[in-house]
Write a structure and sequence with these properties.
single chain, Aspartate Aminotransferase, domain 2, 2 domains, globular, pyridoxal phosphate, binds pyridoxal-5'-phosphate, Aspartate Aminotransferase, domain 1, three-stranded antiparallel β-sheet, alpha/beta
Length: 384
């Protein structure tokens, strides 16, 4: 079976994990800090807080900025549930702004329109869909204009970069956002099994994120109301156990070391798909914006002839042991959101159009050229 994505585990990865298993700390030890340092080094962000998964990373991020009742949080409809659920966890209202078809990410123009005519959100959560960087500089400019905060959901985009005014930025750098989050689920560009991280350049937010990751508990003398003895700790906020283990972080460090190679492999596969699909009518390949160098997490094609062609391609691939996937059902169409906010069909027409006819083809480093050729042939069969 060829899945749409899968993890890559090397002997070095296994060795790194085994070393932790033989060491003193399985959790809250040196591998966690070393992973956080490596994430800062990669992205250029000043602080990284590793946590249990990408969903808890988003939850921590929303809590750290003080999102709560009476606030609005905006995200893209073309995303996994977690990008919106984190707003709901905090008791805020979730709103959606449509994607730009040129990037498949949240449209800054539509966000501007929203802010002009509606209550300004407390936070906007753009998603780097499929590894394509959202237009963060444009969203940053709007954040300054309207006064909202920005959390980049970079679950798909570790390793991706974008250029702005002649400078290159890593996704997750927080150069144009307040906070960024990663996911290290096995289907992502690098994995820790389950895992996530929150990044920021803001010392106050970083301190709050660390506190909330572990029960809101502290031994920091500056935060204690009194001190009974060296064992003494206080819970100064309502936090969670959203910690990650040293075992997972050792895997993360090992995987991060070859992110450059993984990116080259992923880009090569995307180029190969694009090359073979060139000139095939009825198939639109995913965007590769000029200003970006994406570390593609997904390869979502779009069938110009509509959902029937997509269904036929999905079935043909499945019959041949190839598991394609659809990313994503616009989040506001989920029963939970329909029940809470009412039917919003037609709210984000680009996202709906894309959802109705998109299909993510397999993309992971081990995928071979003959496999890519076969996948393309099967897809092309249904459109010609
Ligand atoms: C865009 C996006 N955000 C957040 C998440 C949540 O990450 P995790 O599965 O690590 O909780 C995912 C996971 O699939 C995702 O695709």
């Amino acid at each position: 079976m060829i899945p749409y994505s899968r993890q890559q585990i090397t002997r070095q990865d296994i060795h790194a994990i085994a070393q932790v298993l033989r060491s003193k700390y399985l959790t809250t030890g040196p591998a966690v800090e070393a992973f956080e340092t490596a994430l800062c080094k990669l992205t250029g962000a000043r602080y990284a807080i590793a946590c249990s998964n990408g969903t808890t990373a988003l939850h921590l991020a929303c809590l750290a900025i003080g999102l709560g009742k009476g606030h609005i949080g905006i995200t893209s409809p073309l995303t996994f549930l977690a990008s919106a659920n984190c707003i709901e966890y905090c008791g805020a209202k979730t709103a959606f702004v449509d994607i730009d078809l040129a990037t498949l990410c949240l449209s800054p123009a539509k966000l501007d329109e929203y802010c002009k005519t509606r209550k300004v959100p407390k936070v906007v959560i753009p998603v780097d869909y499929a590894g394509i960087p959202a237009d963060l500089p444009a969203i940053h400019a709007l954040a300054k204009k309207y006064g909202f905060m920005v959390i980049e959901d970079a679950a798909h985009s570790i390793g991706s970069t974008y250029s702005y005014h002649g400078k290159t930025y890593q996704c997750g750098s927080c150069a144009h956002t307040d906070i960024a989050t990663f996911s290290f689920h096995p289907v992502k560009n690098i994995t820790t099994g389950e895992g996530g991280a929150v990044l920021t350049n803001n010392a106050r937010l970083a301190a709050k994120l660390r506190l909330l990751r572990s029960h809101g508990m502290t031994k920091d003398p500056a935060l204690l109301s009194r001190k009974d003895g060296p064992w003494y700790y206080e819970m100064v906020d309502l936090g969670f156990n959203y910690r990650i283990t040293d075992i997972q972080c050792a895997l993360g460090i090992s995987q991060l070391k070859r992110l450059g190679k993984i990116k080259k492999q992923r880009q090569a596969i995307v180029r190969e798909y694009n090359r073979i699909f060139t000139g095939i009518e009825g198939i639109v390949t995913p965007p590769w914006p000029k200003h970006a160098s994406p570390c593609q997490h997904l390869y979502p094609i779009w069938f110009a002839n509509g959902s029937r062609a997509r269904m036929a391609a999905y079935n043909t691939l499945a019959e041949n042991g190839i598991h394609a996937q659809v990313h994503y059902i616009p989040v506001y169409m989920q029963p939970y959101y329909v029940e809470k906010y009412g039917k919003q069909a037609g709210l984000c027409q680009n996202a709906e159009r894309f959802y109705n006819a998109c299909l993510s083809l397999p993309l992971y480093p081990e995928l071979t050229k003959p496999q890519i050729k076969k996948i393309v042939e099967l897809v092309v069969e249904v459109v010609v």
